[in-house]
Specification:
heterodimer; A: about 160 residues; alpha+beta; Rieske Iron-sulfur Protein; 4-stranded antiparallel beta sheet; 1 helix; 11 strands; elongated; B: about 700 residues; Cytochrome Bc1 Complex, Chain C; Photosynthetic Reaction Center, subunit C, domain 2; outer membrane lipoprotein receptor (LolB), chain A; 3 domains; 14-stranded antiparallel beta sheet; two-stranded antiparallel ribbon; 16 strands; about 45% helix
């Protein structure tokens, strides 16, 4: 018969338990910091760049024109050609507004309905006016505006 | 809150059960080894999960993703170090644990099953190590795995089956990598978890074996007394592992290169003894080293509790077992030392990447051409594909829009020709039609309307009323009716060129001959052709106007052309995929492995002869159509289609004038037609299985203009 387990020495047990937990917490913390640091290292938002989107003279007045931006970006460990659709609206002699074509509801691409003069989302019926403001449907806010700059005949957008 | 949770889950009772295991007095520090192994496995799990966030298990990106982890991911170097060196720590800790169990006779009745589970766990750990080191896809990974698979393949009777199972495909490649990755992150962790739980369950069922002789000290609960000893040891081991990971970089050789004969493959140190053993059993005796001896060691380990059934646990009184174990361990150590000493010093870190293997940075069209408007954001090769598609669809040549094209005084950016301005509008119109009506799918292309005309035909000719319908096949064809199975067509082709064995024996092709470039506009010249299995190919044409060169080295491809704005550029996207398909299809025995979804389409014709059309898919939307003569079985034509912004880009090669070269029937006339031109190659000298300088497949070196 093995000897009986003695009555626990509560204070000593708590002390030893605390040391054990402390050491394990430190080890867990180190692994957590290393793993967490890595997991979040690539989620930093990339910097926007000024990209040539169109020639000014090619844009009709006040009519949204879809433009596909093609950007070469480093996608982690590979070079990726990223394509993104935006709408350009020539609002003045040298003024151009730009909207992201992604619906602010769930990200489907909106299209320009030239008859009704509105943007329509094909997914859940979101409707936006020419200025990108919500007119109808579930989108919580208007189309995302994109900064633009006109340089001579070149229309540049920040994307 | 805790009381509520306890009332619902009973977690306190579970914790008590787990932590209050009575540990016999005098157990102490001898019994920390198992906890160290368990902890190291946990470290591997945590670091493995984080590494998997970034790792890409494909030969195209595996190496780059590991470099990315090492160079760009926060703490990535340390995490990979923990995972890499942790594997060695686990092997050492497992052996120490096993040594302790053997020394103290802990495997004896009633713990026989737990010993067997432990031996299986050791094998699982070694399998982890084996599958793990292919993943970086560097030279060591590639060659060590090649050796491993060949060792498995040399197993008597089941060798072919085992080799095939480990390789996954005809050669070590994407299928192998995926298979080993799946084993490493899915299959083996599941096995490890199951066997670890079984090991711990059996440990609790029988308790630890304790000291050799019962001592007078009372038993104590595991927590916190033994737990603290375990934790202190674990902390020391972790500190050591962390220090190693901080000080040393986990090695990463140059990217895998199946043609680099200078690399000396060596396995990790824990497999070095097996590697060394092979040297002593050459030829037909090899299975003794690969199967018999390792099998015998594992069998003896598994049977140990049944061979040594006495109750005696004192190692001093069990000389046969302890001595035998130490002899085996000493033998393994001796062979390991011999193996390590015969390992050449590693190559310099500058070896990082093989020249030419680096996919060159894409050259963007805006960087080299002026006044690009409708087709911005493309790489040069994508852009050239779209230009070619336009000219081929309208039956025009470059100079119809660009003044002086084809001469040295060309003005590509000049907009004075209204046709060029109109072309931009048409590109936008076509994109709008597809976007607004076909969800962006390329249903309408230039060819849909133009059909070799500048202005499309608008009205049907009534002469054609009741005429036969145009039976032009779609680019992508479905399975035909009344056609033979694809295997039969391919087998017949192999028979026609000299038999499957002869075809499979072709590992390289070197040829020279005469070329007529650009349908004679480019003038006549000579060419050199090089191909090396499985996927390297180069065509160097020496023309009056300069060098015209296409190369593909298995990873990167280049195109050099005279009289162009961009004399040389790396291939990207569809063109790169197309070059890979071209290279793989050069070797007849590999056609079946080069394409997926192979099927025989409807009966059709090529070169005026009835043919069987075999179609399959290459990477990322590439489609290849192979036309085999129904009568002779020979391959007459290959057309491959790669995607572009304004339609599929076709490239066609016609093969004619088949002649015998050393028992292999080879086509001596190739007509290579792509959207920007047509080159005809008349082969003169053709040789098989010749050594080829790897530089021939790399970036072309052009003389300064």
């Amino acid at each position: 018969m093995p000897p009986e387990t003695p009555p626990p020495d509560a204070t000593r047990r708590v002390l030893l338990g605390s040391i054990t937990s402390g050491i394990l917490t430190v080890i867990g913390g180190i692994l957590g910091v290393l793993g967490g640091g890595a997991a979040f290292s690539s989620t930093v938002r990339r910097d926007a760049e000024w990209l040539a989107a169109s020639a000014l003279h090619e844009l009709p007045d006040n009519q949204p024109t879809p433009v596909t931006l093609t950007v070469r970006r480093l996608d982690g460990y590979r070079d990726a050609i990223e394509r993104r659709t935006i709408f350009l609206v020539k609002t003045g002699e040298a003024d151009v507004a730009a909207f992201d074509a992604r619906c602010t509801h769930l990200g489907c691409l909106v299209g320009w309905d030239a008859d009704e003069q509105v943007f329509r989302c094909p997914c859940h019926g979101g409707v936006f006016d020419r200025a990108g403001a919500v007119m109808d449907g579930p989108p919580p806010e208007g189309l995302t505006t994109i900064a633009t700059r006109v340089d001579g005949d070149r229309v540049l957008v920040q994307a | 809150m805790r009381d509520w949770l306890d009332s619902r889950t009973g977690f306190r009772a579970l914790l008590r059960h787990l932590l209050d295991e009575p540990i016999p007095g005098g157990a102490g520090w001898w019994f920390v080894t198992g906890s160290v192994v368990l902890f190291l496995l946990a470290v591997q799990f945590v670091t493995g999960v984080v590494l998997a966030f970034f790792y890409s298990p494909s030969p195209d990106y595996a190496y780059d993703s590991v470099r990315f982890i090492m160079e760009r991911v926060t703490f990535g170097r340390i995490l990979r170090g923990l995972h890499y060196f942790g594997a060695s720590f686990i092997v050492v800790a497992s052996l120490v644990h096993m040594l302790r169990v053997v020394a103290l006779g802990s495997y004896k009745k009633p713990r026989e099953v737990n010993w067997i589970v432990g031996v299986l766990l050791l094998l699982i750990v070694l399998a982890f190590a084996l599958t793990g080191y292919l993943l970086p896809w560097d030279q060591k990974a590639y060659w060590a795995t090649t050796v491993t698979i060949n060792i498995a393949g040399s197993t008597p009777i089941v060798g072919n089956f085992l080799g095939g199972l480990l390789r996954g495909g005809a050669d070590l490649g994407a299928l192998t990598l995926m298979r080993w990755y799946a084993a490493h992150v899915l299959l083996l962790p599941a096995c490890l978890a199951a066997f670890t739980i079984a090991h711990l369950y059996l440990l609790r069922r029988h308790g630890i074996s304790g000291p050799l002789k019962p001592v007078s000290e009372p038993s104590t609960p595991f927590y916190p007394y033994q737990a603290l000893k375990d934790t202190v040891t674990v902390a020391l081991v972790f500190a050591l592992l962390l220090a190693v990971a901080l000080v040393f970089n986990a090695p990463l050789d140059a990217a895998a290169d199946p043609t680099d004969g200078s690399f000396v493959p060596r396995p990790e140190w824990y497999f070095m003894s097996l590697f060394e053993l092979l040297k002593y059993f050459p030829g037909r005796l090899e299975p003794i080293a690969t199967v018999v001896i390792p099998g015998l060691v594992v069998t003896l380990l598994l049977l140990l509790p049944f061979l040594d059934r006495r109750r005696e646990r004192d190692p001093a009184k069990r000389p046969a077992v302890v001595g035998g174990f130490l002899v085996v361990l000493a033998g393994i150590t001796f062979l390991t030392v011999l193996g390590v000493r015969s390992t050449p010093a590693p190559a310099s870190p500058a070896a990082g990447r093989r020249p030419g293997a680096t996919p060159g940075a894409p050259v963007m069209v805006e960087d080299v051409f002026k006044n690009v408007q409708a087709l911005k954001g493309l790489t040069v090769d994508e852009f050239m594909g779209t230009m070619g598609l336009m000219s081929a669809s309208l039956g025009l040549c470059c100079s119809d829009c660009h003044p002086g094209a084809g001469t040295e005084s060309v003005k590509w950016e000049d907009d004075s020709n209204p046709r060029k301005v109109k072309a931009r509008e048409m590109v936008r119109m076509m994109q709008a039609i597809n976007r607004d009506n076909f969800s962006g799918r390329q249903v309408v292309t230039c060819w849909t309307c133009h059909r070799l005309r500048d202005v499309p035909v608008q009205t049907p000719r009534l002469d054609n009323l009741y005429a036969e319908a145009i039976t032009e096949l779609d680019d992508v064809v479905s399975r035909g009716n009344g056609v033979p199975p694809v295997g039969q067509v391919l087998d017949r082709y192999l028979d026609a060129i000299g038999g499957a064995a002869k075809a499979a024996g072709i590992t390289s092709i070197v040829a020279t001959g005469k070329v007529e470039a650009f349908g004679s506009f480019g003038g006549g010249g000579t060419f050199e052709f090089f191909a090396e299995a499985p996927d390297r190919r180069a065509m160097h044409s020496h023309l009056p106007s300069g060098e015209s060169i296409r190369t593909f080295d298995g990873r990167a491809g280049w195109f050099a052309i005279p009289l162009a704005v961009v004399r040389k550029y790396p291939l990207t996207a569809g063109e790169l995929d197309g070059a890979r398909v071209d290279a793989m299809l050069t070797f007849p025995a590999r056609i079946a492995q080069s394409l997926t979804g192979l099927h025989v389409g409807p009966r059709t014709e090529a070169q005026g002869r009835p043919v069987f059309l075999v179609q399959g898919n290459g990477p990322r939307g590439t489609v290849a159509s192979l036309y085999f003569d129904r009568e002779s079985g020979l391959l007459l034509r290959v057309i491959r289609y790669t995607p572009s912004q304004i339609g599929k880009v076709p490239t066609q090669v016609d093969y004619e004038d088949y002649r015998d070269v050393g028992g292999i029937t080879f086509p001596f006339r190739w007509t290579y037609t792509w959207l920007d031109g047509r080159d005809t190659f008349e082969f003169g000298d053709v040789r098989f299985n010749q050594p080829i300088d790897p530089a021939k497949f790399g970036e072309p070196l052009l003389p300064a203009p």
